[in-house]
Amino acid sequence: MGKKVNIFIDCCTGINESFIIPTLISLAINYDHINIIGISISYGEGWADLNLHTLQQILSLLQVNSQIDIYKGVDHSLTAEENFPNRPHNLLKPNYPNITGDILKNKFEQFNNEKNIFISLTNLTCISTLIMQCPDLRLYIDKFICSAGAFDDDFNKEINIFMDPHAANHIFQDPIIKNKVIMFPYGVTSKFSMKARKFDKLKCNIPQYFSKTGEQKHGLLPTAGETTDNAIMHGLPALICILEYTDKNSSSYEWGYKEHKLLFNTEGQNRGKANILKVVENTKSTPQLLGIDQKGSVVVYDMNYDDAWNTFCHYFDEADETYTKLNHSWKTDNIKLLSVLILFLSLFLSFIYRVY
């Protein structure tokens, strides 16, 4: 196996996260070289307080509620006065502590000789806020992976920059963190759409999707809710990026990337659109995207989509096996405990009967 990685995830617990996070948690359970040191829930397309039950359900299913630290992230953009349409007000706050720059810095500092990764599956407000709170945090982050950005006419479909381009500008222009950014833009992540065809392929690629009795096998799929059709697995490239780095036997996913100097529009109809100030072409292929020595923000333009999807199917199946094993173990342990209690109660009642 490759170098150990310690991962902190900021997300908004939408359908995308309900597939990616349990897969990452399963990897952390099954492989010692992957360590999830915390998850924060921030605002996004799926608001934290309304979708928090999704994350709670995932953690409960995998029985890691008490093993992974959960935090409240951020609940608004850097310019808090901005109002977005169709967003609820007076949300109930989740009963978790706030993540701060000092907390995360102290966590990463414990693993200073290992690879520390910050993954953002939502807007960039949280990482921007944490770095402003604790500038030294930048020194302990080896790579910052984000599912964000767009570089074509469909840039307004990409919500993670649109929601807070001020935060994006902070991260992509910071003299330290900008050289650690790996961006998977909308043009790449949107290729992993969970349409009916893809969903059928997911089922086909996972062995024994249905048990011999005909009962549906996957207990993790319902965590995504009932609307998996057309959902996009925006976080899948980030997952593949981690897997490729930690598995020495992994083949290259043929990353097509360039190093960029970026500036994002913050006003008007072009809000969130990227202005490319400088591009550095990369002609050499890399076997590990997380292993490159970058001198600017890396933007991935292409990858081996079929291999990535098949790999995801394999590890999602492994996540389901982990869930099934844990769930069976929990039931078995509880049945044993119940049996012992019944036996004890029977003996106790027998003793009382004889005494009286």
TrEMBL record:
Q: What is this protein called?
A: Uridine nucleosidase
In what residue span(s) does the Inosine/uridine-preferring nucleoside hydrolase domain sit?
Answer: 7-244
Extract the InterPro entries matched here: Inosine/uridine_hydrolase_dom, IUNH, Ribo_hydro-like
Which keywords has UniProt assigned to this entry? Answer: Glycosidase, Hydrolase, Membrane, Transmembrane, Transmembrane helix
Instruction: Tell me which family the UniProt entry assigns to this protein.
Output: Belongs to the IUNH family.
Q: Where are the transmembrane segments?
A: 335-353
Annotated GO molecular function terms are: purine nucleosidase activity
GO biological process: one example: purine nucleoside catabolic process
Query: What is this organism's lineage?
Result: Eukaryota, Fungi, Dikarya, Ascomycota, Saccharomycotina
List GO terms (cellular component aspect). Answer: cytosol
